Amino acid sequence: MKLSKIKHVGLRDIWAREAGDFTPWLAENIKELGAALGMDLELQAKEANVGDFSLDLLAKDNSGRTVVIENQLAQTDHDHLGKLLTYAAGFDATAIVWVAESIREEHRQALDWLNKRTDTNTDFFGVVVEVLQIDDSNPAFNFKLVVFPNEWQKSKGSQAAGLVSKRGEAYRQYYQPLIDELREKHKVTNAKIAQPQSWYSFSSGVSYASIGAVFRSNNRVSVEVYIDYGDFESNKALFDWLQKRKDVIEQQLGFTVQWDRLDEKQASRISVDRSGNIQSSAEELDEIRKWQIEKLLTFKKVFSPLLKEGVKEITA
What we know:
Helices cover about 40% and strands about 25% of the residues. With about 325 residues, it is α+β, with helices and mostly antiparallel strands.
């Protein structure tokens, strides 16, 4: 049997310009970058300004964290390391991603040091972009994660230092098996590490409209569609478009939901809830988790295509 060899293709053989070619391509493939990072990334802006500088890509992940992404078509250098830290401070980011053709050993050590020295909510990543080719095949890209936080080490350190409350840790332990099942069994998320917070959101397929699981302050837990374009009129228009189809939607769901237009707020919400809180017994929390997973999957199946259709209509 004749075997072919895999060869590496230089990034500049694919993308001639960093800002004009590589950054737009990376924006278009942000979901694949997120998969390599273990996140569900949603693009917020390209060339986002921080004073006199411009961040390549600004994103959010499914836990609501701000993610800054700086990319290079070459090996990492000190100039971009300085920019990366400037952007992290300017956007108060908790996930900082450096994408390059290769990462110098000194910069890998710097990112590892930052991961060890920062709190549990701040993560630094180094990602190498590979372009591979077999014989005369079309080139294929691969995101190779080479620097990432030691979550166990940071989690234990933050608990010892009192940086994460017992309640926060309880939320983290509750959501970890939930996102593991959604990722491994149902393939609906790239998320790998749960955060110490009372809610978790997942992509609906539409920017600024998420499907989430929430612990509320009134001893209720819910699953919801949360609509927030950052614009009051757009939020209400999409909510109203969906509510006009209330009977059909609830028939497809198989249960009734709460329609909260929230006229006093910017966002709108559609949800279903039940009793429960994070201080429930382990058996009760297992039951709540199964309920949330079932409702999340149903919401995603029913609402994702409707949200896409609704956005097209209200923006036409």
